[in-house]
Specification:
globular; alpha+beta; 724 residues
Length: 724
């Protein structure tokens, strides 16, 4: 047994109580600095010696002995509470549809960056937007609605035993018996309150509530049949701003009430309603990036007068269509964590077109999408170009074409690296959009590649290149520009940007080849996040040069040291590719052992974004629980959950921009992916999950380097990994 596994297992008794001890709200960029009374562990690597499944296939997989009963569809297995405790994931149980703007869910006190903390018992209300796992103080929280009996005082307490969340819905009982239910579509949501007793209730709609800086809030109409708000708030980290328009209507027992709301302190709109026991008060809301008329159109088109249950069922079906593209054999808990992770991957980016195809671009100009296309927004590319975007390219190629064209559109007037003052919806960062575009282009996803190349080349002049990490990040972007130019036959641009991409190399040799005394210091030498040791491996696009410069055996030894000395950080993205590098350098078993340990075993997590903990947090990196993630580990808009999905399938896109995957031991004995066009890929593991890999084959053809091309996977068949 490796030293990594021995230490991880020995530390497990110290894990109990960590969740409750860290249940409080935190601010900042996903940080937690408190000491933990746990035993630190030191990771090490064992060294080796010198689009949807067909219904019949899905039924066949579910019929295996380890499978769950037939009623457990993928959507039923999703647990939206995973990652909603304190700073463990920064997620929310809000009702959301696949790639939907609407995230209708609870706001609590205390709260994490998405407005909710699973440990909280005080309810503030229910809001309609939020970023998922994006750091800083989050963004969203728009149009918060609360309802209480007029005579009620004190905090509104949550009945935790009543709280349930499913893919597309959230329900809770609070404040002595009021029952709140939420269901969401792409751009609309239904919030329904059922009264436990007769009495007058106060309905309050707060347009100024926000997780980031509220910049403007204006009521455009106060009639209860169509009350409208125009909202502006800071995006994540208050870099830039997004603009949003909402249109809502109030119904009591399914009928409009024809009332006018009253505006009071802080622009909150209120309405008193006299109710009877069992009365249902509904607020149906649509959102638009364009205007109030567009929000009304969204609301009336997507939910209209449909019963609450019908809205919930339609969204559940939409989630099953998306999640059912992968079918698994395995225990219920294994599949639940997989589908919960895939659910998070499929939340972003979001589709922003109104039903008439209008949207606003990031300059604030109204545009109309061509027939058959959808515009997307809500970017977090610095985090998820590494994993989530490649996973969408594999599992959602048609949608990825629209995502790619949406990225190309960002370049039209000069793409900001974070956000503009006129974003159509909350966003984080757009760095490395060009790498994502190159990756999709080389995987056969169609978009205007010539326009992309022009934008990427122009964008290069805006990139920061002052600190060591900025030089590597910019070099990766320049490499992507050179490679796309080469693919398009633009050899002049390819030569220019290849040379530009290689300008970082002298710096890498002086700073990273032999990290100095500050090598394990977070933010040393101006790094944005992480350490010199963690950023050392960042130029993955230039791995052949790194190998030639250092020497393969030397580089492998340094990789082993990286894990032996506990320098790896699974809680942030800059080094999440490193476990897979062993395979690229000829030691696939080291990758297999590391990945399995990360997936299944409590390990030490000593790093935060700002420094090292006095005592590392020890726990699972991914777990089926409200804690869900390691302390301080943001999901980053699907960045981390996509890593988990790839790792469990036994594939990983080591170099985004190059269309191939590392192959390792799959966590499941069998999984099947619908690739569309009648093609299906079955991934099999023959042998124990903890065994030594002896062979990988695709349709019987050996993969001697444990590497498989994307184009070969798209043909379908069987990818088989044999262990013993």
């Amino acid at each position: 047994m490796s030293r990594y596994l021995t230490h991880a297992l020995s530390s497990m008794p110290h894990i109990a109580g960590l969740a409750s001890a860290n249940a409080g709200a935190r601010s900042g960029d996903g940080l937690s600095e408190a000491s933990r009374a746990v035993t630190p562990t030191v990771p090490s690597v064992p060294r080796r010696s010198p689009r949807r499944l067909s219904y019949p296939l899905l039924l066949a997989l579910l019929a295996t002995p380890a499978a769950a009963p037939a009623q457990d569809t993928p959507a039923d297995l999703v647990d939206p509470f995973v990652g909603t405790l304190a700073d463990f994931g920064q997620l929310s149980p809000a009702a959301v549809a696949p790639f939907g703007m609407m995230q209708l869910g609870p706001d609590t006190s205390p709260a994490n960056h998405a407005g909710y903390d699973h440990a909280a018992t005080t309810l503030l209300g229910f809001s309609h937007t939020r970023g998922v796992g994006v750091g800083c103080s989050g963004a969203g929280g728009d149009l918060m609605i609360s309802l209480r009996y007029t005579a009620q005082s004190g905090p509104a307490l949550i009945d935790k035993s009543s709280e349930t969340a499913r893919a597309g819905t959230y329900r809770v009982r609070y404040d002595g018996g009021i029952y709140a239910e939420m269901a969401a579509t792409r751009g609309a949501g239904v919030l329904r309150f059922t009264l436990p007793r007769a009495g007058t209730v106060d309905l309050r709609i707060d347009p100024r509530h926000s997780y980031s800086k509220r910049l403007a809030a204006r009521w455009a109409n106060l009639a209860s049949d169509d009350f409208r708000a125009d909202l502006v708030a800071g995006t994540v980290c208050d870099q830039g701003a997004y603009h949003l328009h909402t249109a809502s209507r109030i119904l009591v027992n399914g009928r409009p009430i024809h009332r006018t709301l009253t505006v009071g302190a802080n622009d909150a709109a209120t309405l008193q309603i006299a109710g009877k026991a069992g009365d249902a008060i509904e607020i149906r809301t649509g959102m638009s990036t364009v205007d109030g008329r567009g929000a009304t159109l969204v609301r009336d088109t997507e939910v209209g007068s449909k019963p609450f249950a019908a809205v919930a069922v339609e969204t559940r079906k939409a989630w099953n269509r998306i999640l059912g593209g992968v079918a698994l054999s395995g225990s219920r808990d294994q599949r639940a964590l997989f589908y919960t992770s895939l659910y998070r991957v499929m939340e972003t980016p979001v589709a922003i077109d109104d039903p008439d195809h209008r949207h606003r671009d990031n300059k604030g100009v109204v545009q109309t999408s061509p027939d058959g296309q959808t515009r997307y927004a809500n970017w977090s590319l610095w985090d998820n170009y590494r994993s989530q975007m490649p996973l969408l390219a594999l599992l959602q190629p048609e949608r990825s074409a629209d995502i790619a064209q949406s990225l190309v559109a960002l370049y039209a007037d000069g793409k900001a690296q974070w956000s503009t003052p006129h974003e159509p919806f909350l966003t984080v960062r757009t760095e490395h959009a060009g790498i994502a575009l190159l990756d999709m282009h080389r995987k056969g996803i169609a978009f205007d590649a010539d326009a992309a190349l022009a934008g990427m080349a122009a964008d290069s002049h805006t990139l920061h290149r002052g600190t060591p990490d900025e030089q590597i990040e910019a070099a990766y972007d320049d490499w992507a520009t050179a490679e796309l130019a080469r693919d398009l036959g633009r050899t002049d641009i390819a030569r220019t940007f290849t040379a530009k991409a290689q300008n970082y190399r002298p710096m890498w040799r002086s700073v990273f080849q032999t990290p100095g005394a500050d090598g394990d210091v977070v933010k040393a030498r101006g790094l944005y996040q992480g350490t010199l040791w963690q950023y050392r491996w960042a130029p993955i696009f230039d791995l052949p040069w790194m190998t030639a410069t250092v020497g393969r055996e030397q580089l492998l030894g340094e990789l082993h040291h990286f894990f032996d000395a506990g320098l790896f950080n699974m809680t942030n993205e800059p080094d999440i590719q490193v476990p897979w590098m062993f395979t690229a350098l000829g030691q696939p078993q080291a990758t297999a052992n590391l990945v399995r340990t990360i997936l299944t075993t409590p390990i030490a997590h000593p790093y935060t974004n700002n420094g090292k903990l006095p005592v590392p947090f020890v726990g699972r990196s991914f777990a089926l629980s409200p804690q869900g993630f390691a302390d301080g580990m943001d999901d980053d808009a699907g960045g981390m959950t996509a890593w988990y999905v790839f790792a469990t399938l036994g594939l990983y896109p080591l170099v985004p921009g190059e269309p191939w995957y590392v192959v390792t031991t799959p966590a499941f004995k069998q999984s099947a992916i619908d690739l569309g066009n009648g093609h299906k890929l079955t991934i099999q593991r023959a042998g124990p999950a903890h065994g030594r890999m002896t062979r990988a084959t695709l349709n019987g053809r050996s993969l001697p380097n444990f590497r498989v091309q994307h184009a070969d996977l798209l043909l379908g068949g069987t990818l088989k990994v044999t262990t013993r």
